Every structure is written in structure tokens, then in C-alpha cells.
């Protein structure tokens, strides 16, 4: 969908540019006529707006569980739903959108009634590669900035709602500022614009990487501290209610969450919180679950075992993070637990992923 959105939004910008370039004012001001010299300004402004609000085109987690067709659980009451997405999906939006934007401007320049002054970003677009690089990095930076604010908003959404709203308001103002900046970009000196974007791009990228990593850890801690907030998302599989103690298998966690014909291969238990969390590997799925006060397993997240690539056990600050890594989706984490058991679990999963066998 990232490519589809990139194409559609670029086509819309091209239509707006072509309309104004033909002297047609869609707002019907001045008898429906407009100076074609504004075509580049409006076109660049649309690109700035689209890239600064790119988060609104990244609102769903479309990963589907292989068996049963259930959509996997995303962040409860999520504003954007992209924190738990695989990294490649998050970090591909910026460059994909930016490539389409930078490429489309070559078409603009070829049909432009007013091709711009030499020495400016717009005027040099057909004669130098620098303007295309400037637009590419500017659009990518705009996406990074928007995603950085979205990461911070996600981190506070469920427990500090006032701060969440404040961040969203700030994101809107920053997006407006980015749009205004793009309005002035066509007339900016090519040299000064290149220097500015070469500085801004790595800063925006590092900010996104850091904010997303921090937000993921904070979300994981919140889930560990209060898993009951996720109960309204708990689905049912194969007519079995996982919230019913001992159904269909007795024995308590994690055996009570097994389906008919499902076999437990290994699991790791984090006992840091009053309601410990589990990473569970069966022959049918990989599950992150919580043990509720009534001594029953409550499933928080799950995926098919074929996606599992390994588990790492490491310290993040004062916390022990046991993280399950997957091929086509984001990581799943639990906080705390016994370090030796965490390492042993990681080794066992690595062997399972490599050989398909469980050490007995």
C-alpha cells in the first residue's frame, strides 16, 4: 500500500500543478484565472503537506494470522497503529514517497509555462541533479519528522492523554511549518537548499530511529504493567474462549491457552510484574501472553511460528528485555524475568529456528 499511496498522492499533485500551469484557478478566484508562475509553488506545497502528514496514510496493521485469518492485535486505542509494525514498513514510507515526488517534478518542469530562474531549485530542475536530490531528501525528512512525533504520541496515548493531545497539536503545527517551507523551496538557491537538507535529513532520521525505539520499550512496559487494558481485544479461536480457565486443557498457564491438537514447545516467564508475561512457542503459533490474577493465560499478541527468526536476551537500562524477532513483522518483547532462563530460552529458540528441532 505504500507504493499505491505514493503513486496516488503524486498524481494528485501533478493534476494540481497541471491545472494551475494551464492558468485555471480551481478556487474560482479572479474569474477562475491564475498566473501559471504559482504552479510550482502550489505543487511543492502539496508535496510538503502530503509528506508531513504521511502518518495518516499508515494507520493500519494488515498482518493477518496464518491460521484462522484473524488480524493480529495492534496497540489498543492506537492513534496510528505503526509502533509494532516491522521496521522495513516504517522506514520505507519516506524514501518511497520521496522517489515518486522527486521524479514527478521532472514532468512538471517539462510542461511548465514558467520554468523558473536559473540558480534556484525550480529553475535548475531540468539541468542539474541537485534539485532532485534536494526534493528527495526534503520529502524523506518531512516523513521522518511526522513519524517522530507520531512515535512520541503513541508512547503516551494510553496513560498521559493530555500529553498525547499536546504532541498531536505540536505535530500539526510542525506539519504546517513544513508545508510553508516547501512553498518557498522552488525559489530558494540550489546551493543553500542543498546544504540545509544535507544537515536536516540525518537529524530527522536519527530522531525517528531513537523515538521509535524508545516508544516501543515504553509501550512494552505499559503492557506488562497493565494487561487488563487489552481485554476488550481478546478474540476467540476455533470456538474456544481463551479467557475461560482450563479450556480446553487443564493445568494452568500456559497449557490453558492451547488449542486442540496444539503442542507446547517452550516458553519463558517474566515474573517482574504482579501479572507475569509469557513468551510461548507452540507447533502452531508464537504467543505473548499475560497470567491474570485468576491464574489463567490471557493472549496479548500472536503470530505463526514460521515467522520466528530468533530471540535475544539483553539489558536495556535496568531492565531485562527478552525479545522475539520475526521475518515480516515487528518484534515482541517481555520485560524482566530470570536472566539465565532468558538466555536459555533464546538459545533454544535459535536452535528451533535453525534446525526445526527442540532440545529435549
Automatic annotation (TrEMBL):
The chain crosses the membrane at residues 38-58, 90-111, 131-153, 160-185, 191-211. Keywords: Membrane, Transmembrane, Transmembrane helix. The keyword Transmembrane helix applies. This is Uncharacterized protein. It comes from Brevibacterium aurantiacum.
Amino acid at each position: 500500500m505504500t507504493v499505491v499511496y505514493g503513486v496516488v498522492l503524486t498524481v494528485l499533485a501533478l493534476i494540481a500543478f497541471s491545472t494551475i500551469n494551464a492558468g485555471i484557478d480551481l478556487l474560482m478566484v479572479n474569474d477562475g484565472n491564475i498566473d501559471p508562475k504559482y504552479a510550482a509553488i502550489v505543487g511543492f506545497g502539496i508535496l510538503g503537506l502530503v509528506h508531513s502528514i504521511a502518518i495518516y496514510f499508515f494507520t493500519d496493521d494488515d498482518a493477518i494470522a496464518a491460521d484462522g485469518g484473524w488480524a493480529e492485535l495492534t496497540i489498543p486505542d492506537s492513534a496510528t497503529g505503526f509502533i509494532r509494525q516491522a521496521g522495513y514498513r516504517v522506514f520505507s514510507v519516506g524514501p518511497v514517497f520521496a522517489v515518486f515526488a522527486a521524479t514527478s517534478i521532472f514532468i512538471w518542469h517539462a510542461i511548465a509555462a514558467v520554468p523558473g530562474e536559473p540558480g534556484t531549485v525550480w529553475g535548475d530542475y531540468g539541468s542539474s541533479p541537485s534539485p532532485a536530490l534536494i526534493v528527495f531528501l526534503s520529502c524523506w525528512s518531512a516523513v521522518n519528522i511526522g513519524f517522530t512525533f507520531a512515535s512520541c504520541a503513541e508512547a503516551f496515548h494510553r496513560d498521559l492523554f493530555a500529553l498525547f493531545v499536546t504532541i498531536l497539536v505540536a505535530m500539526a503545527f510542525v506539519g504546517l511549518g513544513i508545508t510553508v517551507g516547501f512553498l518557498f523551496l522552488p525559489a530558494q538557491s540550489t546551493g543553500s537548499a542543498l546544504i540545509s537538507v544535507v544537515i536536516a535529513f540525518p537529524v530527522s532520521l536519527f530522531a525517528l530511529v531513537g523515538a521509535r525505539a524508545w516508544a516501543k520499550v515504553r509501550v512494552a512496559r505499559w503492557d506488562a504493567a497493565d494487561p487488563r487494558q487489552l481485554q476488550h481485544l481478546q478474540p476467540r479461536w476455533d470456538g474456544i474462549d481463551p479467557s475461560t480457565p482450563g479450556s480446553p486443557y487443564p493445568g494452568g498457564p500456559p497449557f490453558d491457552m492451547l488449542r486442540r491438537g496444539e503442542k507446547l514447545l517452550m516458553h519463558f516467564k517474566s515474573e517482574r510484574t504482579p501479572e507475569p508475561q509469557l513468551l510461548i512457542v507452540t507447533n502452531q503459533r508464537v504467543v505473548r501472553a499475560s497470567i491474570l490474577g485468576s491464574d489463567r493465560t490471557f493472549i496479548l499478541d500472536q503470530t505463526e511460528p514460521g515467522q520466528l527468526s530468533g530471540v535475544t536476551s539483553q539489558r536495556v537500562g535496568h531492565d531485562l528485555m527478552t525479545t522475539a524477532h520475526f521475518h515480516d513483522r515487528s518484534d515482541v518483547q517481555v520485560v524482566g524475568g530470570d536472566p539465565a532462563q532468558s538466555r536459555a530460552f533464546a538459545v533454544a529458540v535459535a536452535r528451533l529456528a535453525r534446525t526445526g528441532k527442540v532440545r529435549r
